[in-house]
């Protein structure tokens, strides 16, 4: 940027304060004050995501070494997209200036409150899974305890990112430990069963998005068989002169007593595009975010 252009920018925008123990600082610019605020918070999200990327991969490396080699690719696939928007509930606009139609803001985010929110968000995901595992253990329901790994692995990516961020700020937490303990509990139960996945041929294009179910951890060649069925329906339509395709999926599992049970909740994904042959690829990408 030319020196004359830089000189017209607010000083707080060119030289924002460094983060402190109490505040995280970020700047933004936009066509109005709200747009500048959104830009500032987006910049902070990107900075925080970039800072924790290496830590998340380190966690995955540590965890994958605990399991069989055939599970490594499945664990890695869950970290293919690390950047994500954070929710900032405790921020204030510290400085604001308008120059030549552009709006500039300096925002500070209260760090302790933000980190506490991150921890609580992670626990809100993890605690219901831990409670469900406790119920299965009390009932000696080893089958559902083994299958609980799929729900746990669904949230692994976000939980590890939250843990990495808290670690970066030396914020004490037990997210990693509690997650690993829960996953090990599921794996120990899985050792008692053999595993089979049944996926209709017409849905085979979804295989890359269903990696947890294709790469379960801990199951053995035991005579007791756990079978997971994935069924679905594809509906073709058109939206605004473009092809549209909706996919509905449902998971079931067959108990050792021969009873069919629901596994998780139904999933729906939707794709719209001008090229029919690319709709399935769009469905796969959408599904990856939900499995």
Automatic annotation (TrEMBL):
Keywords noted in UniProt: Lipoprotein
UniProt key word Lipoprotein: yes
Name the UniProt record assigns to this protein: LPP20 family lipoprotein
């Amino acid at each position: 940027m030319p020196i004359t252009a830089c000189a017209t920018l607010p000083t707080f925008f060119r030289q924002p304060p460094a983060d402190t123990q109490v505040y995280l600082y970020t700047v933004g610019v936009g066509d109005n004050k709200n747009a500048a605020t959104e830009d500032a918070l987006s910049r902070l999200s990107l900075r925080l995501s970039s800072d924790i990327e290496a830590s998340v991969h380190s966690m995955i490396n540590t965890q994958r070494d605990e399991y069989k080699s055939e599970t490594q690719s499945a664990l890695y696939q869950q970290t293919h997209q690390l950047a994500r928007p954070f929710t900032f509930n405790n921020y204030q606009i510290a400085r604001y200036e308008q120059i030549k139609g552009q709006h500039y803001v300096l925002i500070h985010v209260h760090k302790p409150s933000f980190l506490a929110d991150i921890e609580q968000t992670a626990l809100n995901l993890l605690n219901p899974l831990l409670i469900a595992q406790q119920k299965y253990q009390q009932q000696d329901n080893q089958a559902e305890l083994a299958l609980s790994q799929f729900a746990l692995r669904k949230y692994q990516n976000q939980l590890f990112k939250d843990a990495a961020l808290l670690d970066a700020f030396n914020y004490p937490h037990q997210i990693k430990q509690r997650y690993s303990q829960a996953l090990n509990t599921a794996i120990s139960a899985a050792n008692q069963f053999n595993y089979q996945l049944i996926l209709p041929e017409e849905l085979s294009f979804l295989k890359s998005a269903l990696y947890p179910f294709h790469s379960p951890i801990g199951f053995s060649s035991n005579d007791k068989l756990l079978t997971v069925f994935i069924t679905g329906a594809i509906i073709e339509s058109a939206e605004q002169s473009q092809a549209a395709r909706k996919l509905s999926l449902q998971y079931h599992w067959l108990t050792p007593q021969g009873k069919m049970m629901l596994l998780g909740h139904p999933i729906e994904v939707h794709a719209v595009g001008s090229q029919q042959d690319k709709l399935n690829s769009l469905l796969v990408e959408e599904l990856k975010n939900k499995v």
